[in-house]
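Retro notes
What went well: the complex prediction finally ran end to end.
Inputs used:
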Amino acid sequence: MRIFEPHAHMISRVTDDYERMALCGVRAVLEPAFWLGQNRTSVGSFVDYFDTLVGWERFRARQWGIHHFCTLALNPREANEPRVNRDVLAVLPRFLEKDGVVGVGEVGLDDQTPVEEEFFAAQLELAVRHALPVLVHTPHRDKKRGFERSLAIVRESGIPLEHVLLDHGNEETIRITRDSGCWSGFSIYPHTKMDVDRMVRIVQQYGVETFIVNSAADWGVSDPLRVPRTALALELAGVPRDEISRLVWDNPAGFFAQSGRFTVAEIERPPNVDRRETFDGNSVLRGQDPGSY
Amino acid sequence: MADGAIAIIGRRLGEAVAGGASAAWWTDALGRVADEGPRALPELLPGLARRLGRGLLGGGVVHEPAVTTHGRAARVDLDTWRVCDAAGLELMRACDADPVALFQGGDYEERTIVLRAQALLPAGPATARLFGEIQRTNTATHFEALACDHNLPSRACGIAGFGPDELNRLVLKAAFLDLPLARLLGIEEHANAELSRMLQDLATEREAAGRPVWADTDRLVGLAPAPGTLLRLLGALTHGDERRRRAAAEALRRVPRPDVAHLIAERAAHERADDVRRLLDGLAAEWGS
Ligand SMILES: [Zn+2]
């Protein structure tokens, strides 16, 4: 089964993860820009991070036949960081036009502060201007209220609601999101967020319409194979294969294809791979013979 | 008078964009540059390849008399220019943009576009700086965009920050990347003994490693012999590859050495390729008389 992983922070994963993902059917990855575990102290760190997401990470993914896309943004945690927040907003417009950038994200609320709201709204405006979909991170604390507040800010921005993916949803947020016309993302993440068994029950109860599942794999205790594992669990639970395929390929591919930066047909073929090719002189192979791999 | 390169590129670009899905976007982009100046470029360049495409312009090698450095007019091979490169040139010509900043902020495709456009822009401090950048990169596409299929390195040689030493290192890197000499338009006129020494050392190093030697080594060192050049060329006359023997015979014509006429005559007797043998016979007769 072909899988589009719509939320994985590959920058913090090893090259072997790409191979394991490819072996499990992952053919496209969306990497949203987020927090790196600690606050950055200058805009230069963001510029380098964004350059990595549009350059080196795409190159690395391609070596395993995986299309790599990203969404770029100032994340809600660092929206609270006065040393960087305004400068990051200023460099975003040029990055949002680059190849491989198919959305604005992760934006949204985390601690639900006024300054988070200000930068959330400003970046929704950017999304409208660049005609890009938006990936919204929703708070892990006080989630239901945060969801409602996020939706209010989204509505105020005037962005088409079908361009909005509200991520990290759970049983509590399904109804509000569906009724709004936005897409619902579920992060299947060990110990927190959503787990595989609950996801199976959600699909059995609600179907897959406007649902997207992701691993949200990052530098934490996480698992980049959570989407294939979910697909398998759904199959064992008797969910028809074409339903599962809609959930793990058609939905995420269709959502981000709204950017106009790629077509679903295009990514059904593998990206060009030349294992002798390097990126800035750097190969993912370390002195190995590309032919012998 | 025939059109210069810039006029041809502008016309081809217009034809490629007209009626296409991005025609309105392109008009808008030109308007933004007119209104905002160079500030608009970082948001416009990234979309050029995606929106206008990478189709080749075609048209062969053409001159641009309006862009001249040290009396040398710009020359470019339009067969290597794409629609997005043409658009990048047009945008950069429309305002006073800093190509170094555009290069540094650009992704893979933007960098290619910015570098290729330099072939038809005035050479100055930014050109020298960009030559420094591609000298350090290992992305062959970027090196080719600034160094190949036009005469920018040849034309710019002598500006501040890009003198004969820098040009020599650029040619050496082209040899290292195995790019044909014919793609470095006008480089032969800059041949010098120091460059010949560098190329010969690279060749020796490659031979020691059992790796192929840059095919144009003999041609270029023959234009400006250095110690060792004569021996290298004489040795190449027995190379198994006929093209290498032909290049060595042609190069020897520029290294007149009557004292080795008898060696040339001896080799000519064993040469299988008619044209190479005629060249060698000619040399032996000329030098021996
Ligand atoms: Zn995330």
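What we learned: The pocket of zinc ion is lined by residues A 7, 9, 32, 34, 106, 216 (CB under 6 Å).
What to try next: split runs per interface for comparison.
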